[in-house]
Amino acid sequence: MALVFLVLSGGFLKAENLVQQKGIDRDAKVDQTALLDDDGRLRELRIDTNQDGIDDVFQIYKNGALIRIERDADFDGKIDTRDWFENGKRALQERLNPQGHVVQAITFNAQGQITTVKTDTCDDGELDTIQQYEGGLVQASTRDSNGDGRIDIWDFFRDGRPQERRRDDNADGRVDVTITFNLDGSPATSRHDTDNDGQMDLLRIYRDGRMVKQETDQNNDGKPESRTLFKNGQPIEKRVDVNQDGTFDRSVTFAGGKPVLQREDMDFDGQQETATFFNDKGERVRSEHDTTSNGRPDTWQFYTGGALAVMEQDRNNDGKPDLRLRYKDGRREKLIRDDDFDGRFENTQRFNLPGWQVVVEIDNDGDRNIDTRFFYKDDVLRIKEEDATSNGDGFLREYYDAKGALVKSEEAQDA
Fold it and tell me: Which of 128, 158, 259, 332 has the highest CB neighbour number within 10 Å of its CB?
């Protein structure tokens, strides 16, 4: 910092007298104005540094010693910096906003090194951020980010570089997030308390500033319930411990940030017997299930627009579906079954006929003619039709009441 001193000659002047001296550019304008006290000592020196005719630096003295310098660095007519001196050395610097409020205060030691920096980051008149320095390097910092008068961010440094940050995001007085940093200042890890119980239950690991792994431990037993791997900022794999026994039971594979395949161990025997496939919209399109744990799928589900459309099942484990159930608008529409496993679906159940809960149709001989038909309402058989001639020409029809008791039988010709 350059200090400008004006040397006066010709004896002492009264305090009300001004001594003016031209600047070194020898123009007609007064560049410096000195005010003296009663003893003839310098009390104030006013300087016009940009030769616009307006003083913009003011050096204040007491008993001949410099105690303060005020500056208008942007020449708007308002003081924006104040430097305070003790024993001829700067001890404090204050930076002011256009309203004259202090927005930053910097203290210095006897060697001229910064010891603290206090800053108003919320523009509310409070110096909410405090940085501590040692040997010219920042060591720690605290901040009240929401202006409630309580510290909610703590920063720690090593060799002037950020080492760790702690945050209280919900203003409950407890740390919710802890971040550690690499030497280049990029994040290395972050731990989060997502349920506000005072325990860190989420861990994130970063590489080159991007998250590469995330683990959750909601029950705080030290064993993660989920682990997600990331590449280029997008998930590529996720594993989940559904029953929290320490073993991952579900795995999800991602492409382009969206799931493409999910495998799951539904019975927790160590074998993933369910696989679900997704389209590029993240919607389910197909799933396979091994319900007998023999290593082969025996149940398939097919989806349209993310909604279940068809379900197939292989009940005798011959690799061929012998049951097929169709859905429409989330409701069962039609079920066909091959109960004798001969490759022909002889049993049909319809769930969409008006007035009936379900109608069951059976083709026993495989001639594509219905041999027997059952009509159900409220889980009770109400009508039974049987092909008496086995050629579809005539039916024996039986009627049942709401309790399932036979009330009427008749023979009828098929129209």
Answer: 128
When pLDDT is averaged across residues 33-45 and rounded to a whole number, the result is 92
* Cα 395 to Cα 130: distance, rounded to the nearest angstrom: 94
- Mean pLDDT for all residues in the chain: 90
What 3-state class would DSSP assign to 15? coil
One-letter amino acid identity for 58? F
Rounded to two decimals, what is the model's pTM? 0.72
**Location of structure tokens 């299930």:** 289
Nearest-10 Cα torsion for 44, 45, 49, 54: 60
- Residue carrying the six token digits 């039709």: 385
Which residue type, as a one-letter code, is found at position 327? Y
Q: Which amino acid is at 387?
A: D
Q: Are 181 and 188 in contact (CB under 8 A)?
A: yes
Which residues are CB-neighbours of 128 under 8 A, at least 6 positions away? 119, 120, 121, 122, 143, 144, 145, 147
Q: Which two tokens stand for residue 167?
A: 């945050």
Of 19, 24, 22, 23, whose CA–CA distance to 8 is shortest? Answer: 19
Question: 322 near 315, Cβ under 8 Å?
Answer: yes
Task: Kindly report the backbone phi and psi dihedral angles of residue 311, in degrees, each rounded to the nearest multiple of 5, phi listed first.
Answer: -125, 130
Alpha carbon 95 to its chain centroid, in Å, reads: 37
Q: Specify whether the CB–CB gap between 400 and 408 falls below 8 A.
A: no
- pLDDT single digits (tens) 254-288: 999 999 999 999 888 888 899 999 999 889 999 99
Distance in angstroms (rounded) separating the CA atoms of residues 239 and 250: 6
Q: 């509310």: which residue's tokens? A: 124
Distances (CA, A) of 284 to 124, 266, 331: 52, 18, 17
Q: Could you tell me which of 303, 241, 242 has the C-alpha nearest to residue 276?
A: 303
Residues 265 and 310: their CA atoms lie apart, in Å, by: 23
Instruction: Return the closest-CA partner of residue 202 out of 213, 191, 187.
Output: 191
Q: Which of 20-34, 298-312, 350-364, 378-392 shows the lowest per-residue confidence on average (mean pLDDT)?
A: 20-34
pLDDT tens profile 54-64: 999 999 999 99
